[in-house]
């Protein structure tokens, strides 16, 4: 782990600060172009919410074509992405294989509880 005040933590904080600043600049450009950031985002779905008919939260897809299109456009516009995003995607792929093995051995209720605990432990913050 990084200790506060160490050279590595100072560098990491500086990189995050630069990313935050650059993302803010890109957000301002989008606001200038579209009038607001929410108009830009809503434009990907024709300004209408997408309502899924999923019975269980585990049925909701992690990736969709709309989400991929938004992500690619944000990156194209210059929004920085943290390596953590890539690492999280890689670990998710590894977790899928592990989850399949666990589901073979445990009843569904126990697997749902374990998955819920794993999700609770995730940090989605990029700051």
UniProtKB/TrEMBL annotation:
Per the record, the domain of life is Eukaryota
* InterPro entries with a match to the protein in the record: Adenine_glyco, DNA_glycosylase
Q: GO biological process: what's one of them?
A: base-excision repair
GO MF entries:
DNA-3-methyladenine glycosylase activity
- Report any Pfam family annotated for this entry: Adenine_glyco
PANTHER family the UniProt entry points to: OS04G0501200 PROTEIN, OS06G0649800 PROTEIN
What is this protein's record name?
A: Uncharacterized protein
């Amino acid at each position: 782990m990084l200790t506060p005040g160490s050279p590595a933590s100072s560098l990491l904080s500086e990189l995050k600060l630069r990313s935050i600043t650059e993302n803010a600049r890109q957000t301002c450009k989008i606001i200038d172009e579209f009038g607001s950031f929410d108009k830009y985002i809503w434009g990907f779905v024709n300004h209408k919410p997408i309502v899924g008919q999923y019975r269980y939260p585990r049925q909701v897809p992690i990736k969709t074509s709309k989400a991929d299109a938004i992500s690619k456009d944000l990156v194209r516009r210059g929004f920085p992405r943290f390596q953590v995003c890539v690492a999280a995607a890689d670990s998710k792929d590894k977790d899928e294989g592990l989850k399949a093995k666990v589901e073979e051995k445990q009843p569904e209720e126990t697997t749902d509880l374990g998955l819920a605990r794993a999700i609770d432990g995730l940090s989605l913050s990029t700051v």
